[in-house]
Amino acid sequence: MTVEPPRTSTPLDVAAIRADFPILGRTIRDGQRLVYLDSGATSQRPRQVLDAERSFLEHSNAAVHRGAHQLAEEATDAYEGARERIARFVGVDADEVVFTKNATEGVNLVAYAMSNAATSGAEAERFRLGPGDEVVVTEMEHHANLVPWQQLCERTGATLRWFGVTDEGRLDLSDVDGVITERTKLVAFTHQSNVLGTVNPTEQIVSRAHQVGALVVLDACQSVPHKPVDFKALGVDFAVFSGHKMLGPSGVGVLYGRRELLAAMPPFISGGSMIELVHMERSTFAAPPQRFEAGVPMTSQAVGLGAAVDYLTAIGMDRIAEHEHQLTEVALRELSAIDGVRIIGPTNTEHRGGTVSFVIDGVHPHDAGQVLDDKGVEVRVGHHCAWPLHRRMGIPATVRASFYLYNELDEVKALVDAVREAQRFFGVA
Amino acid sequence: MTVEPPRTSTPLDVAAIRADFPILGRTIRDGQRLVYLDSGATSQRPRQVLDAERSFLEHSNAAVHRGAHQLAEEATDAYEGARERIARFVGVDADEVVFTKNATEGVNLVAYAMSNAATSGAEAERFRLGPGDEVVVTEMEHHANLVPWQQLCERTGATLRWFGVTDEGRLDLSDVDGVITERTKLVAFTHQSNVLGTVNPTEQIVSRAHQVGALVVLDACQSVPHKPVDFKALGVDFAVFSGHKMLGPSGVGVLYGRRELLAAMPPFISGGSMIELVHMERSTFAAPPQRFEAGVPMTSQAVGLGAAVDYLTAIGMDRIAEHEHQLTEVALRELSAIDGVRIIGPTNTEHRGGTVSFVIDGVHPHDAGQVLDDKGVEVRVGHHCAWPLHRRMGIPATVRASFYLYNELDEVKALVDAVREAQRFFGVA
Amino acid sequence: MQLEQMYQEIILDHYRKPHRHGLREPFDAESFQVNPTCGDEVTLRVRLTGTDTDAVVDDVSYSGQGCSISQASVSVLTDLVVGKPLREALTTEAAFSELMHGRGKIEPDEDVLEDGVAFAGVAKYPMRVKCALLGWMAFKDAVSRVVVEAS
Amino acid sequence: MQLEQMYQEIILDHYRKPHRHGLREPFDAESFQVNPTCGDEVTLRVRLTGTDTDAVVDDVSYSGQGCSISQASVSVLTDLVVGKPLREALTTEAAFSELMHGRGKIEPDEDVLEDGVAFAGVAKYPMRVKCALLGWMAFKDAVSRVVVEAS
Ligand SMILES: Cc1ncc(COP(=O)(O)O)c(C=O)c1O
Ligand SMILES: Cc1ncc(COP(=O)(O)O)c(C=O)c1O
């Protein structure tokens, strides 16, 4: 295995980065070195993020936006400061960032706001859906960006349509104008597939959607953690991502919404801190983002995510993308070279991120995963919450390796070796 | 000020407890000792909870229920182990405990499941609501247990009714049978008021509700952290509480639901990990509690809440209740003794928890809070997310002191002194 | 003790004896503003004379409930804007808003803000800034309604 | 290496040459079970003869897809229950389920579980326990359907 010299930026000092992640020092099973290749499911946390959260909790913890004492003031500053940095990280303004518990809640927030529009005022008109209206998704969506739209259609009588996937694992956009039509009210699609690694062409989809006046929701769970992303530049109306996939805490996610859309959108979860006036008979609601953050929020988690964004920014998203690109290139090449191993998704690195899924003839992914685990190589096996995509590719499950800034080239080698071992163990090589 | 000797249990070693809470060592403004009397909004966290979460993140962090590798196995064990201990803490079974981001989400979960029942199968029949049906709440509810029901009524055409509050700050139950009737489909009320401290008589309300076949939702946010609570013994159908009010992390709450109800209830937030089968056209859903936990959950936060429950259990909820009872008794007596101070809520400790709200003639609560803060006394001022209750009591806002296991008697004294100082500062005494 | 910095005598005076208090007729527009975190409210009316660049603030009347900061602030507001050209009043509004968002690091211009400079200490308390701005938001909103209606 | 403990030869043999594979007629009830985390599926049919306490498992047929553990387990299941009195089959089911939930700490009874004892190593891997139980859940479910229909 050889690495080409980095093309656009200085290479990462991966050893120094790894030293920031306490968990990477542990072993697996009988003393195997941990080779963590499951960052697509959830990433690990650097000391800096753990420390930021702990320091907040040991010094400034209080309920934010509720009360005037000094702790509340410091906590609110920390929480809103995190919001500002996170917003800047994805090219938007702080008041366009809503904190959710995860990306899944973000998608549901938009989906429920749309069905709630039925019983809201005229300003919510453009969010209303009914029979005859259509919602467009793709066959490669994560369940998080599929099931909420199915449910929205069930609630409203709208129809779900979708773009298919080619054998190569790309979106079939041969009939964009036939799928996104005047009936389309919303288009939801993933920026990068969590199985195939495919990066979808946002421009073509966004411009057609806007041509027919449809809203665009981008699932950015697998892009924001791995490369520079600017939602304004992409022109999407909404986007979601999760903290835990980008070195941040679990329990916090982000919904971005264009200012004027959030302002017109009915609330989803209701309760304290999202209101303007409350009477027994009825209530009115606060301006965004508060309108969409009911209850005591994930305060220390937002602070932790702010620290994660600082960490990523200090390293540089360009360099991280470049690093993963190199690992992916080697992984694709080496895995493809093994007899009986088939990559599911693009086999080159063009418009493709650092997620490599594959199947091994004669070895069920679950069994392969067990052998890999025995070698300390932690990958995910199964349908990765993208069941329809697997069905489309004609397979029940895959083995998925996903890379991040802390992965090293010799971990790719460990993966490849473990795959060969799985073949040996099950007698197929 | 004198303390009576503890009645039923050995007194807490508050000094030892305080040593577990790093934040209690800090100062406020110009070097004032921190007197934290805002645990009703959010509690502080002991080292044990911070350590449990950090240790999880440094050793076993992974996406739970998704993948078969050793980290996923350890993470799932930690997450499900926490669920078991938390369930036991409130007298229910693990599969009746759903993790939410906060109590507010828990209430919304039930409210949305009920409107979703309209487009669900026959098994969801008993959750359906429509015109002519009634939902009953009380005038002392936190917005979290009021606004979601208003919104449910808007979505379904059902009618919201409520129990009033007496001048003494008790529920007016003089006409229980007139308020809860055959039309009532659901009764939602708070176990303990977050403003008045009032503990409501669950038995009378639950038995009338069940007599007419209505479901009962208990808001246990202010009871579970402070005394022994057993949901099975109370006979409620659903209950909610938040981790951050009971020494646990923010970003995690609990919805308890009776097993057979959860089994029949349609999902709320949808996405990964809550499904059974997913096709492009439609999906089926997993059994509870997974059905209600879409997406990567608040994993480390659940683990932290498990540690909080262990901490509270080791000290003993009975002893904690007794300790708060004593602080409350002294606070009520000393504050009532000040000319121009009026307690809002019961003035004795019968059926009453450790939350003491009051107004000071001639000093707006916001201004009083500022003087208290200047003395290091952190209380909450405003309507405490119970605006209708304040309107009912004829006041726009109150000052609220709320106690917890780490508060000492001399902090009550600091509160009382600061209130007198506020009167002096604004020239009303 | 920092309290005196926040609660300047000027503020307490305005709180105890608010200027131009009460709701009066005639008026061109009214705005109701509430601070949802604490429940402070103000209803404020403006009466303008003249139009466009010649417009002058003829009267500002108000009622409400709230803390000393929110009540004193709206009283000071009336001193600063009544009888002034609208353009000048809006400049004053901008200066006051800037002061309040300055976290105590902006030196207020007494020529522009007069009694308003007393609120410089409030700017150090971010949770109270909304109190000080409540009346000013109502003023801005009411003025914008007049302008919208006129156009 | 712990792998061999999990993947006993017996398991791999059943996986490669599953017993009684395929769906057959006649049958009294069918159950479809799926493991939503990994997508493993099994469709299983039971045919009983006799009734109540005399009931005997006449045939179990199945098809499905999944890992070696889930496929081998259902193959072993058929060996253990076909031709046995239903009561005995359900006792075996309970014993197997107990073994799988024992986290590797339960000593299996070879007289009851026969080839099933090979799964003792799987019990140490909690994430794989569901694989081993998939077919058994289908069996239990199918039997309960026969009983419900009969009553
Ligand atoms: C009585 C009561 N109910 C509900 C809530 C809402 O809890 P959370 O904001 O954690 O969802 C609170 C606290 O804010 C409360 O005190
Ligand atoms: C592409 C994609 N979308 C959505 C999600 C859902 O994210 P979460 O589970 O954090 O809500 C994930 C990860 O699980 C993902 O990879």
From TrEMBL, chains A, B:
GO terms for biological process: cysteine metabolic process. Its EC number is 2.8.1.7. Keywords: Lyase, Pyridoxal phosphate, Transferase. Residues 35-415 form the Aminotransferase class V domain. It is an enzyme of class 2 (transferase). Pfam families: Aminotran_5. GO terms for molecular function: cysteine desulfurase activity; lyase activity; pyridoxal phosphate binding. Signal peptide: none annotated. It comes from the Bacteria. Its cofactor is pyridoxal 5'-phosphate. It catalyses: (sulfur carrier)-H + L-cysteine = (sulfur carrier)-SH + L-alanine. The keyword RNA-binding does not apply. Belongs to the class-V pyridoxal-phosphate-dependent aminotransferase family. Csd subfamily. Catalyzes the removal of elemental sulfur and selenium atoms from L-cysteine, L-cystine, L-selenocysteine, and L-selenocystine to produce L-alanine. NCBIfam families: sufS. This is Cysteine desulfurase.
Automatic annotation (TrEMBL), chains C, D:
One of its GO terms (biological process) is iron-sulfur cluster assembly. GO terms for molecular function: iron ion binding; iron-sulfur cluster binding. It holds the Pfam family NifU_N. Residues 6-131 form the NIF system FeS cluster assembly NifU N-terminal domain. It comes from the Bacteria. NCBIfam families: SUF_scaf_2. This is Nitrogen fixation protein NifU. The lineage of its organism: Bacteria, Bacillati, Actinomycetota, Actinomycetes, Pseudonocardiales.
